[in-house]
Request: fold
Amino acid sequence: MHFAMPPRKTSQPPPFARASRSSPRRRKQLQFGGLILCGLLLMIYFATLLFSSESDRAPAGTPEVVIVTVLDEATMSEKYRRRIVENRNYYAEKQGYATFFPNVSDYDLNNSPRTWTMVPGVRHAMTVFPHSTYFFSLSPHALVMDPSVNLQEHVMGKKRLESLMLRDKPVVPPDSVIKTFAHLKADKVDLVLTQDGEGLCQGSFILRRGEWAKFFLDTWFDPLYRSYNFQKAEGHALEHVVQWHPTILTKLALVPQKILNSYNLDISSRGGKEVQYRKGDFVVRLVGCELDASRNCEKEFDQFYDEWKLQMAKED
Reply:
């Protein structure tokens, strides 16, 4: 049986074939449309960049530093609270900073120790002052003794912080296997802490605003850690998250204790005389006074308050 052979193809298009879509006119139209599209995309990009930079820019009068101290109306007398506020406000006025004084009752701790409130206190301050750069958390049982100290010059300036950072040092003394990074640069630091002979000192620290800071505070305040019943509550929880969360350790700088956290007493296990307050130190902290029934925080505070008031009267 024979089948008909298909007709041979020819390179000549039939007379009724449509014009090619890639004709010069069509190409010019596509090129013109592409240029318009690229122009629109560039305009959108630059508009987004402009408005985002405007929204990130701090409004005029924004304080660079916010001092955060959580007060406890249930356990502290009105006189004691008033003197704490006076001390912080005087320092803030001298340096152009702001202060923030939440109360323990502002936060639901779900039966956790009251000292935990320092963590949501700082987080709260970050929402009230969304454009401030630094948040200086200071225990209520402490005084700023030298109001001439500017935190940027004293601690947070790049060259200054580089010179202060304790590198390759056990996070929890004396022999923690987890150590601070040896090559961390100051401009990468978002959390500045001190430590004494027993561990990290959460009673005085500086936190730089940003998404990492929010992550750090939320991690620290995790209900799971609050339910662990750590012996030193938020203090031991802080040591845990710093040692076992590399994301947090990578932003941490330890500085010498007396830079932010001199003690009022000679406690050998916590540094002894070397870290005891001397005239000219920035801060004095009444370490552990609220945990020892034989001590009275307010009386110890008054001793340094009187010294501070006398010094301020001379300067004014």
In short: The first helix runs from residue 24 to 56. Residues 138 and 168 are 26 Å apart (CA to CA). The chain is about 40% helix and 10% strand. The two ends are 121 Å apart (CA to CA).
